[in-house]
Fold these 3 entries.
Entry 1:
Amino acid sequence: MSQEEASLEARLEEQEAFEPPESFVEQANVTDPGIYDEFEENWPECWEQAADLLSWENEYDTVLDDSNEPFYEWFTGGDLNASYNCLDRHVEDGAKNRAAIKWEGELGETRTYTYGDLLNEVEAFASTLRDLGVEEDDVVTLYMPMIPELPIAMLACARIGAPHAVVFAGFSADALATRMNAADSEHLVTCDGYYRRGDALDHLSKANEGLEGVEHDVSDVVVVDRLGDALEHSLADNQTDYDELVDEHEGESVEPVSRDAEDMLFLMYTSGTTGKPKGVKHTTGGYLAYTAWTSHAVLDVKPEDTYWCAADIGWITGHSYIVYGPLALGTTTMMYEGTPDYPDKDRMWELVEKNRVDTLYTAPTAIRAFMKWGEEYPARHDLSSLRLLGTVGEPINPRAWKWYYKHIGGESCPIVDTWWQTETGGHMITTIPGIDTMKPGSAGPALPGISGKVVDAEGTEVEPGNAGYLAVDKPWPGMLRTLYQNDERFLQEYWQEYSDEDADEWVYFPEDGAKIDDDGFITVLGRVDDVINVSGHRLGTMEIESAVVGVEGVAEAAVVGGDHDVKGEAVYVYAIPEDGQEPDDDLEEGVVESILDSIGPIAKPEDVIFTPELPKTRSGKIMRRLLENIASGNELGNTSTLRNPEVVDDIAEQVEAE
Ligand code: WTA
């Protein structure tokens, strides 16, 4: 490194605030700082700006109906169709030949669907689903990896008013069965397999195994042929090949069904405090308006862009910011099937260069991996097409932020650090890239119209700089409406009611810790419930624990998250063997297998520690914090309130030894 470079490096390291580059501001979708006041003064009517990004079949009468708090409704009386908004209207506006989806397969194959192509394929598949007996409001499960047929199936469902429930392809057979059972879903679309690091993975066998655990009849299963001859499968009687069906229905037109703004668009299962995943319900009007609005304001999406969100559609990020938001705005959205280090660690940068990508949206865990691999990989490529960078999923540490800023953005792209959740539908806390100063490590202010606060256990705002709970005390269009068929759990998991002389106030708690600065910038500190965040994926420790205690020979278990350089957090299992059971390799293997079977490889533990006892308080509660500290290699602090303090040292020694 030259002296000049070294001093530049030092300057970057110390810099705490960054202004958006002029070149970006000049072309940004949203640049008027007055938007914050405008939304506040004009709330909730300000949200018409979001609704105006859509085409409504019937205009709504009311922006917000809050007559039954906290079961808020948005844009009531309005009708629209999400697939019409993502496809037909762009074709009608002359964008028939613009690329809608650019797909990059792991082995180097590519497929481009123009808006015209995508509309045809969606109509053919919508017609297929109808033919198979799918009716409006039937939940269709999509257990698919990153292949174009996934967004096609989502939009086909939306077209006929059948909510989809996408199950991440990396989830296990059991996880599929649990979700299909919970949603009473009788229809499944899946595929034969997909590629990972060049190997063909068998997906259909996993799907079939999952189907065995479904408690009701599944009337039909559509199977996409992704692998050709790479894997041999025979289809069961109720299973049909996707291409065969779509060929039959090619050229058929299917009118988009008119959906009420509050009709369900999709269900997405996510992890919570208890072992049972939560079915988050999103609606057609509010969700679509909100994802379109945030794609416009935060991701600065423009129709002529090539925009790449490198998430998986199996999670909310892919739903909102690969599929619905970008397509509603008529842009070109990229999809990548594979891993970022196959065939080499410069794959992402090769794809950015080749496709002249304007905006890249990825996760801090990926950025930390890129850092570890080294700056020579991005340096091999021309990344000058990039205009904006984004991150999502977990807090980003300032070092990773600055690396991303320098080595990917060439110090000329703003970064949006977007805090949000499956439940919020879209971004909530982030800078607006054409307006706000950026402070690495802090997500930014709450978006215009979003009332983000940091409060104590009584719901009172804490002083700036102090840690508290993140809270949102006004509704927003993209919010979840309820947990599927479980209003009670919805109320209990997310809402607190506070009363004062004037009124009752309902406050939404995302279960994240945070602190706020004097200028309203919010730093998100991480989950405060029993959810851990592994590589940006939300996992319920209770779900994992129940897999562990299900293993023969295990008496009791505690699962916690420990710090991890790349993944952010990793899964640590502490287990007590049953009397007479040796804590041997077989038992460990049994524990790992059981976790893989009930959840999937994303929950694979970093370490399984057998111990004769778990640290417990005098009232018998397992001290999870202590176990987290052991896993993270932190100071253990005071253990004197434990019933069995001696066990802590034993466990810590074991962890260090491994
Ligand atoms: C965490 C993903 C800090 C947070 C969109 C939240 C973040 C959970 C950020 C939701 C961020 C997400 N900074 N933490 N920018 N983005 N999180 O439902 O703990 O998979 O509650 O949605 O991820 O995870 P989910």
Entry 2:
Amino acid sequence: MSLTIAIDGPAASGKGTLSRRIASHYGYRHLDTGLTYRAVAKALIDAGQPLDDEEAAIDAARTFDISDMRRDVLAAHEIGEAASKVAVMPGVRSALVARQRDFAAQSRGAVLDGRDIGTVVCPDAPVKLYVTASPEVRARRRYHEILSNGGEADEEAILADILKRDERDMGRADSPLKPADGAHLIDTSEMTIEAAFRAAREYIDAAL
Ligand code: C5P
């Protein structure tokens, strides 16, 4: 049997790593829906259009090539910030949600991760996970990630950015980030990725 698995959580909670691990273990396709919002933001930036141009953003949301989204190209911090701005526009959300649902429907087993997967995109998913960690732990992880990639970073500034992004994602009117009904909570603040994966597997295996 194959399932749709819905994974939500705030920035740097560990949900991306966990989602990839789950998809590879069960042989399911994976869609990082954050990349779809990032792709729209990047299209606007590249075209020199303002981020609040809803018509241009909807057009980009309908037409960008979903099979060509590259994490390395879309990873920049500024693109994440810009993505959270385009993500407040309902027209952008409905265009992207339609494409995310198509992805799930066309897959024999799919893992989708984002902010509104269990609440809006796939509310009937048989397994929903809400992955979180304290803002301080998330900031520290991001900080070490940047350092280990040879970059420079200021942990305080990262924490401030994380709090600002949480506020925008949890406070917006359309599809705010919150645990879906029936979601299993996984708090990774004091967990290794291996322990989080074990917890997720128990929920998934029980649904198979
Ligand atoms: O997860 P990531 O940092 O790539 O997401 C970038 C931004 O896209 C988030 O801060 C959020 O505003 C938006 N997003 C969303 N709904 C999703 C996935 C991402 O609103 N399902």
Entry 3:
Amino acid sequence: ASKKDDGNHVTVYDAELDAEYTFRRKIEEALRLAIRSPDEFYMLYQPIVNARTMELHSVEALARWNCASLGPIAPDVFISVAEKSGLIVQLGSLLLKKIFCDMQCRPDLRFNINISPLQLLSSGFIPTLTRLLGEHSISPSRIEIELTEGVLVSNCDTVQAQLKQLRQMGITTALDDFGTGFSSIGYLQKMPLDTLKIDRSFVSGLGDDKVLANVLHSIVSLGRTLGKSITAEGVETLYEAEILADVGCHYLQGYLFSRPQPLDQILKAAGNGHSLTGEPCAQQLRRA
Ligand code: C2E
Ligand code: MG
Ligand code: MG
Ligand code: MG
């Protein structure tokens, strides 16, 4: 299990793998139980703002799990365990239900919803979504579904068909973490995606990389030429926000404006250099 074959290395590496494997198995067991007591899961919401006016555009729903036996588990971890164990379809519809209840509480907001590619490809997905829309009397135009690149590329035709169906329903779609995957320009042009969300790894480099602003400018121009709406993720400083707005991003999201928070703490107004929590952005910056 190691490139070096000195005995110690192999042992250390295997022990690490083993611990990782055991940890993920524990999470999987706990996840199976938790899906039957869905109170352990809750949603937080992070604002996405208009890059010119800084006004609230929509909120992204981000899942949290406070596991009864293991404590809080990060979504990157439990979502990937759920994907690998096949639990994601059940977990995904459980989370969807919570989000739809919240959507009913805040009819003034648009919601971005993360969907695992496996969930999108499952046969029950569109029917579940259609049922929830009806039950909660939600207009599909208030929803944007976010997908990551990974599985999308390999199941191109099926994914394309599902995205088309979402579009016919009036739901928009976004490619999440854009720039970290392998989408070709042809793929982007072909896929019925409305929005590109530029991954935060590009944004966080802006401070000390002069070339990056030009690279971003090119990416954003390409996206705009393809008719996509562009959102930048992980915006933490005013400096980043200004560059991203200058290079043509339509929307911005990140700690600068707000961390993910409970829905009832999302305020409607923003702008004038004020964050969505009501305090000046600059003040938030000084504290960071
Ligand atoms: P994502 O969809 O790309 O969500 C953005 C992540 O970046 C969130 O992490 C958010 O808290 C974090 N973030 C936002 N602004 C900033 C910033 O300025 N700086 C930094 N350093 N981070 C920022 P989170 O909440 O831990 O979620 C991680 C990932 O887990 C998400 O990435 C998404 O892929 C997945 N995920 C979360 N909730 C769900 C869900 O309900 N369903 C599915 N399928 N996946 C989910
Ligand atoms: Mg997302
Ligand atoms: Mg992302
Ligand atoms: Mg991500």
